[in-house]
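W.,

You were right to be curious about this one. When I first looked at the sequence I had no strong expectations either way, so I just let the prediction run and decided to look at it fresh. Below is the sequence, 247 residues in total, followed by the output.
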Amino acid sequence: MVRIAALSDIHGNLQALSAVRKAIDAARPDYVAICGDLVFNGADPAGTLALVQELQRAGAFVTLGNTDLAVADGDIAAAFPWFSDGAPESYLAAAEWARDQIGDEGLAYLRSLPSERRLRVGDDLVLFCHASPGSLTDSLSPDLDPVVTIERVSGTDAKVIVCGHTHMPEVREVGWRTIVNDGSAGYVFDGDPTASWALIEIDENGVKAEIHRTNYDVLAASDAVSARGLPGDVYRAATIRTGKLVR
């Protein structure tokens, strides 16, 4: 049996990532995957990035997220294509602030990240990506038209697709494939203000995946964002505090 712990969408929330790291260490997986959106929005992008790099040095697969692209290269249109008239000032300010916090070495690290990683487990291929195969922004949300979902997952031969982006954790079968959306380890939207991550088990009998929830100091993380005082921080803090997207 091979066991994989997956997390994503940390969004600069070091309190949440630290708690998830402890939970994952206790689970003792064979592999760890971190599927993007590492630093944008939260109060400690530099500390978060340092811990991600530590996990990578220990063997974790790390991929790029769309907000990492906004921070690293300032390509707002590529990072947020749904804003046809340009991203709000709150997004621009948060990207610029995170850019300043992580410095040149952090920016170089983000730019070095691939958009996808793959792991072969016996005859099965596992794909780690941010939103969907071949895209940082086209999600695998459960409310998608089934035809669109099939089109998006057909972009890979992987039996297991591990992703995030929606901030809504779920495990779903689509034909012979398993989609594992680990939710968010720092900025969840499903109304449960904890950090979510996934534990995947693959053996000769198939694939089993479970979503795990880890408690952390939500108020400390929320207060740290509030104290920063950027445009939109009151909504970001409320999102962290409630586990629901507030805007």
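Here's what jumped out at me. The radius of gyration is 17 Å. And, maybe more interesting for your project: The CA atoms of residues 200 and 209 lie 4 Å apart.

Coffee later to discuss?

I.
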